[in-house]
């Protein structure tokens, strides 16, 4: 079982540390493990260490400090800094050795204690005295930038100071953090020479979000300061080769440092190039994502990179400045500056578009889809009732005769009667009858391909709307899958519009965000026929996808998950961008919000495989899931990992993510929001409908 070591009292530094260790580490200009720029957050600052006992109290500390480490000693691995990278090191090395995970963050140690509670080879601690029994020290602390883009090595300097206080002669010290060229020699070299440590550098290659290949299968670069402490490379190789399938020694740490920075900076340059390509596509009316997909069909000589708003993560935005600190890279410098200014340039471009549209008066609408006879009394702009379906010959059929004829709703017998009462109370509300949807779409291809069936449907749906006081029809064909079906879809809409002309009747249609569907449609013609297109901003992932992920994200994740798994590239923004690039008017696009969650069994998060899946209405989610949701406002997505059940990943929207989407809809001059389905919403401050409405109509 993993042990979480509580802190012990901090003793005064021994004279050895004050006189010999501290002078060996070039002085830093920031306090221990504290960033100078508070706008960066890694882990919360830890409270002062307090007095408590430890499971290592019985160790002979004087013996640990005095006895030199030999090759015959059983390795005990200390990982200094157990963030994302450090956690991978703990997991990898604990498969064979005893591992001490050390961090100054009390919260981090507590969280990892739950994760490793069943692991006998792992103990976790905030007390440096627990490190005395270690034979190998792997340093994986953050390497940062100050606001002026100069290097902040304070974490690394203080980690080395901690190691110098507790490590025995003959110990092996390896820097895993990304550093500037020569920094391993500058910071670790004097300490290794004085204390006779084996020392070197092995840059981490953990890629956040990627689950394949496993860390142990990624070739591991190692290097040693053999010119300072002979045998360093062999000492590092003896342990690393037992964990990693492929270990690649290089001649000196400077090679390993340059290799790591070159890898990451190459990605920076390639992403900058992809963004330049996207910018060049705009005046030509070209979809840059289509260009990327076409180029990626080449089986050699091309690496796929997609354009975006910039670069994210802990490494890619930082590493270029480490390389530029003591090296001349004009191309890299240009790409880096371009990437750092890109978000503001995109914002300026959006503001320019908004200023050009300032005279347009767009009324923000909120629509609700209702299944069968489900009904609530306060609907904001329109209600789409899913009550009918269609046969292949164009004739209509009810999908809930009993519910309509017998269910008493709001004092009226039958759903349709209740809707008539609602329209009498709120004349501005529009009601549409929705046809099809999901598995109910299978009749559409044959219906749309037949002129007689199209005319039959148009005639019968008009008669139904007139008889029951509906304002129009919503076509929920999910979705035309071939170019021929796309042409038939347009003919189908034309038949309806000829029978139900605007503006007397409304005609809308629900469609997915994916280009796999939209590319089959003549969108300029569709825009002329429809009053609104209900863009289904959900179901990006589900039981049909290979991995789990957010099923309704506004933006794709900023990490490389969307490169590894094409499924995770889907987003609301991508659908809107494609529609507008084809000339579809922004004001006719209604962005869809799901009032339900998607559940992925035995999955820890996006990019992970899962076992079993399902849907849960937002109103039926446990309160602790909604309250404890992890909200990623940068992509407008919320999630919860069910640690009490089968440890499943749950993706859903919460009011704050709906507010982000509503602000996006306003900024893009979209027509508004719709919700599937209104019956799944919660009441009060957790209402998704209310959150969207208030944001759309805020000043």
TrEMBL record:
Gene Ontology biological-process annotations: chitin catabolic process; polysaccharide biosynthetic process; polysaccharide catabolic process
Keyword Secreted: yes
Domain GH18 residue range list: 364-699
EC number(s) from the headed UniProt entry: 3.2.1.14
Keyword vocabulary terms for this entry: Carbohydrate metabolism, Chitin degradation, Glycosidase, Hydrolase, Polysaccharide degradation, Secreted
Catalysis performed (reactions): Random endo-hydrolysis of N-acetyl-beta-D-glucosaminide (1->4)-beta-linkages in chitin and chitodextrins
Main location as per UniProt: secreted
InterPro entries given in the database record: 6-PGluconate_DH-like_C_sf, Chitinase_II/V-like_cat, Chitinase_insertion_sf, GH, Glyco_hydro18_cat, Glyco_hydro_18_chit_AS, NAD(P)-bd_dom_sf, UDP-Glc/GDP-Man
Alphabetized NCBIfam families for the sequence: NDP-sugDHase
PANTHER family for this protein: UDP-N-ACETYL-D-MANNOSAMINE DEHYDROGENASE
Protein name, entry field: chitinase
Organism from which the protein derives: Fusarium oxysporum (Fusarium vascular wilt)
């Amino acid at each position: 079982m993993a042990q979480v070591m509580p802190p012990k009292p901090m003793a005064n530094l021994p004279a050895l540390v004050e006189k010999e260790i501290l002078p060996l580490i070039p002085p830093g200009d920031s306090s221990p493990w504290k960033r100078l720029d508070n706008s960066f957050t890694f882990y919360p600052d830890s409270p002062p260490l307090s007095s408590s006992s430890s499971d290592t109290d019985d160790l002979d500390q004087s013996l640990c400090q005095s006895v030199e480490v030999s090759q015959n000693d059983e390795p005990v691995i200390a990982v200094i800094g157990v963030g994302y990278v450090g956690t991978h090191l703990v997991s990898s090395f604990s498969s064979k050795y005893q591992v001490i995970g050390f961090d100054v963050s009390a919260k981090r140690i507590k969280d990892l204690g739950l994760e490793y509670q069943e692991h006998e080879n792992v103990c976790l601690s905030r007390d440096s005295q627990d490190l005395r029994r270690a034979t190998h020290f792997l340093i994986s602390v953050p390497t940062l930038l100050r606001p002026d883009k100069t290097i902040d090595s304070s974490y690394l300097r203080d980690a080395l100071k901690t190691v110098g206080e507790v490590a025995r002669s003959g110990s092996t010290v390896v820097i895993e953090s990304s550093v500037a060229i020569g920094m391993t020699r500058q910071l670790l070299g004097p300490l290794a020479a004085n204390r006779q440590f084996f020392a070197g550098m092995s840059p981490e290659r953990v890629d956040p979000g990627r689950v394949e290949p496993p860390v142990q299968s990624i070739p591991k670069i190692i290097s040693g300061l053999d010119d300072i402490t002979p045998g360093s490379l062999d000492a590092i190789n003896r342990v690393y080769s037992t964990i990693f399938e492929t270990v690649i020694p290089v001649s000196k740490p400077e090679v390993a440092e340059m290799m790591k920075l070159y890898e990451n900076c190459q990605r920076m340059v390639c992403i900058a190039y992809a963004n330049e390509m996207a910018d060049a596509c705009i005046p030509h009316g070209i979809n840059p994502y289509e260009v990327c997909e076409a180029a990626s069909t080449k089986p050699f000589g091309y690496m796929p990179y997609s354009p975006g708003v910039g670069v994210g993560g802990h490494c890619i935005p930082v590493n270029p400045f480490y390389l530029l600190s003591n090296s001349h890279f004009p191309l890299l410098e240009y790409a880096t500056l371009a990437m750092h200014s890109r978000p503001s340039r995109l914002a300026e471009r959006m503001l320019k578009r908004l200023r050009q549209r300032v005279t347009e008066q767009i009324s923000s609408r909120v629509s609700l889809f209702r299944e069968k006879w489900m009904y609530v009394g306060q609907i904001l702009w329109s209600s789409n009732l899913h009550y009918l379906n269609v046969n292949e010959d164009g004739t209509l059929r009810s999908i809930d005769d009993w519910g309509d004829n017998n269910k008493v709703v709001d004092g009226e017998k039958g759903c349709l009667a209740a809707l008539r009462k609602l329209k009498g109370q709120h004349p501005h509300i529009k009601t549409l009858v929705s046809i099809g949807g999901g598995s109910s779409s299978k009749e559409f291809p044959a219906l749309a391909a037949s002129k007689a069936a199209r005319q039959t449907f148009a005639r019968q749906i008009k008669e139904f709307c007139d008889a029951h006081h509906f304002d129009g029809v919503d076509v929920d064909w999910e979705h035309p899958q071939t170019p021929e079906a796309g042409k038939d879809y347009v003919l189908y809409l034309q038949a309806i519009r000829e029978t139900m002309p605007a503006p007397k009747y409304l005609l809308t249609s629900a469609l997915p965000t994916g280009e796999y569907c939209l590319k089959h449609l003549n969108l300029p013609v569709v825009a002329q026929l429809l009053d609104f297109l209900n863009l289904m901003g959900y179901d990006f992932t589900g039981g049909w996808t290979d991995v789990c992920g957010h099923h309704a994200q506004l933006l794709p994740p900023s990490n490389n998950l969307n490169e590894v798994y094409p499924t995770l590239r889907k987003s609301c923004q991508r659908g809107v961008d494609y529609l507008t690039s084809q000339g579809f008017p922004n004001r006719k696009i209604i962005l869809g919000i799901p009032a339900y969650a998607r559940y992925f069994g035995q999955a820890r998060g996006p990019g992970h495989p899962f076992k079993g899946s399902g849907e849960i209405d937002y109103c039926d989610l446990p309160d602790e899931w909604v309250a404890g949701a992890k909200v990623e406002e940068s992509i407008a997505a919320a999630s919860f990992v069910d640690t009490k059940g089968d440890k499943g990943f749950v993706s859903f929207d919460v009011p704050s993510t709906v507010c982000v989407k509503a602000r996006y809809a306003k900024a893009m001059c979209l027509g508004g929001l719709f919700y599937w389905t209104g019956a799944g919403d919660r009441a009060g401050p957790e209402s998704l409908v209310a959150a969207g409405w208030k944001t759309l109509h805020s000043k």
